């Protein structure tokens, strides 16, 4: 016979279980071999039948048994089992990755109270939490920068030497907006460098000035108005001059109520770049920049036509060094006022020295930008006169701000008599008022033909002004 078929009932049961083709047993041509092979196949069929009987029907298999059967059915080879196991593990791994990703993106499972439940090992944040964290980090960085600047202002410099002052940084500033190398006086420049070891020197041209103004605008437009500066409110700016007392007060010089310095935003400087570039006279821009450089960085400012007569570290008497944060000098001391000046005692601004963030400087910047914005026709309207310049950015305006500060820190602001021009007239030695050192006429104005100033260099002379610049022309 050609083939031998197994019992039909056993074959049908086997095919139902494993969906295999009927098992056929090829037979050899030799009778002996046929009998031996038949015996082996009969044994195999009996063994498989017994195994199927022990498993039972498909409906009676439990879930774990089904899962085990899926992976480990006898009909599968070892390679097939391994492939199925790998697929299952890969699926579980991808599912875990997806859960972590959704959790990190702030997506969680909705719960009845409307919130979201996140994985216990959650490492991510919601979009709102990320925004809040970023804002908090930005605020912390800003505070750290301010603290660092304050610490540097107080402790960066060696106060035990005579070359540095405790609160005024060792920086020298000069401004030459229309810079021409052939015009710079090497003699004047050398006097500043030779007497100021370890001081930095900066000569601002038009480009450098614009960069500094842009820095101011960036601070003013910072998110949330986070930059705050010490500044006086605008109460005193309605005065036409330094307040006087008693019968000497004219109608235009009424006594102004005391005002206190406050931390204010830089909202006034949001349009500073536009206003600065629109200033029609160079002298306005040069004046504005000297106040801005010292407000931001601190140090010493002096005009290009000045020479240093005594090292900066020796400007302040030893007993005043620890308190001095602002140094101003008289440019006139005469009653009635000297021709070309506005007040009996007037402060010069061709040389200044200050710690950064001094309220007089920020108040001056606020005053300048506030006044120019109220000019009839704006800065591009009618041509500004010399008196306009004096009252907006020049010595007259500076004198008003300084007098208000002196009263706040040493006069009526601390329960003392009001400081007026009469308080300062005739002074021959430096005097400290609060944090401000006021120098007599010879300090910065030796050689002026008035106010009893020395005609030549004296022991009080710190800076000599050569008066070679002429701002009283159309070009400024």
Give the strand content.
5-15%
Q: Label the overall shape.
A: rod-shaped
Computed Rg: 45 Å
What is the CATH C level class of the largest domain, in words?
Answer: Alpha Beta
N-to-C span: 128 Å
Q: What's the architecture of the largest domain, going by CATH? A: Alpha-Beta Complex
What's the helix count?
Answer: 14
What are the low-pLDDT stretches, counting only 5+ consecutive residues below 50? 1-5, 19-23, 25-30, 57-61, 235-241, 245-256
Classify the helix fraction into a percent range: 40-55%
- What's the total count of β strands? 16
Structural domains: how many: 3
Q: For the report, how would you describe the main beta sheet?
A: 8 strands, mixed
Helix/strand order: EHEHHHEEHEHEHEEHHEEEEEHHHHEEHE
CATH fold label of the largest domain: Spore Coat Polysaccharide Biosynthesis Protein SpsA, Chain A
Give the mean pLDDT: 78
Helix and strand content put the structural class at alpha+beta
Protein name: Initiation-specific alpha-1,6-mannosyltransferase
InterPro entries: GlycoTrfase_DXD_sugar-bd_CS (IPR007577), Nucleotide-diphossugar_trans (IPR029044), Och1-like (IPR039367)
Organism: Sporothrix stenoceras
Keywords: Membrane, Transmembrane, Transmembrane helix
């Amino acid at each position: 016979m050609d083939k031998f078929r197994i019992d039909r009932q056993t074959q049908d049961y086997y095919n139902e279980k494993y969906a295999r083709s009927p098992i056929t047993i090829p037979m050899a041509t030799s009778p002996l071999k046929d009998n031996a092979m038949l015996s082996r196949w009969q044994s195999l069929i009996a063994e498989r039948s017994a195994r199927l009987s022990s498993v039972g029907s498909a409906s009676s298999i439990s879930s774990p048994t089904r899962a085990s059967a899926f992976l480990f059915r006898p009909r599968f080879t070892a390679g097939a089992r391994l492939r199925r196991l790998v697929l299952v593990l890969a699926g579980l791994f991808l599912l875990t990755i997806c859960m972590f990703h959704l959790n990190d993106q702030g997506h969680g499972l909705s719960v009845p109270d409307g919130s979201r439940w996140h994985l216990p090992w959650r490492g991510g944040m919601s979009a709102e939490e990320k925004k809040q964290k970023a804002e908090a980090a930005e605020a912390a960085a800003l505070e750290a920068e301010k603290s660092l600047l304050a610490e540097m202002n107080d402790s960066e410099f060696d106060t035990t030497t005579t070359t540095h002052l405790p609160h005024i940084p060792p920086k020298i500033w000069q401004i030459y907006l229309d810079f021409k190398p052939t015009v710079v006086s090497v003699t004047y420049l050398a006097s500043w460098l030779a007497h100021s070891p370890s001081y930095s020197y900066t000569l601002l041209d038009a480009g450098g000035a614009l960069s500094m103004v842009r820095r101011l605008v960036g601070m003013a437009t910072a998110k949330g108005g986070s930059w705050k500066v010490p500044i006086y409110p605008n109460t005193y700016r309605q005065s036409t001059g330094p307040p006087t007392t008693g019968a000497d007060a004219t109608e235009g010089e009424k006594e102004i109520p005391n005002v206190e310095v406050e931390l204010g935003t830089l909202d006034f400087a949001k349009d500073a770049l536009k206003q600065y570039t629109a200033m029609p006279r160079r002298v306005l821009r040069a004046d504005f920049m000297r106040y801005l450089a010292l407000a931001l960085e601190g140090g010493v400012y002096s005009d290009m036509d000045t020479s240093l007569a005594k090292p900066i570290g020796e400007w302040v008497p030893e007993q005043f060094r620890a308190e001095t944060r602002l140094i101003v000098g008289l440019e006139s001391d005469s009653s009635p006022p000297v021709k070309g000046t506005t007040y009996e005692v007037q402060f010069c601004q061709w040389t200044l020295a200050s710690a950064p963030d001094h309220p007089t400087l920020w108040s001056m910047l606020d005053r300048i930008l506030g006044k120019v914005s109220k000019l009839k026709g704006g800065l591009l309207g009618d041509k500004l006169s010399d008196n306009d310049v004096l009252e907006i950015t020049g010595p007259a305006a500076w004198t008003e701000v300084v007098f208000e500060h002196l009263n706040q820190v040493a006069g009526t602001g601390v329960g003392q008599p009001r400081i007026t021009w009469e308080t300062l007239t005739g002074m021959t030695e430096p005097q400290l008022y609060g944090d401000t050192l006021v120098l007599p006429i010879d300090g910065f104005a030796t050689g002026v033909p008035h106010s009893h100033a020395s005609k030549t260099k004296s022991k009080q002379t710190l800076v000599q002004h050569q008066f070679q610049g002429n701002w009283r022309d159309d070009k400024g």
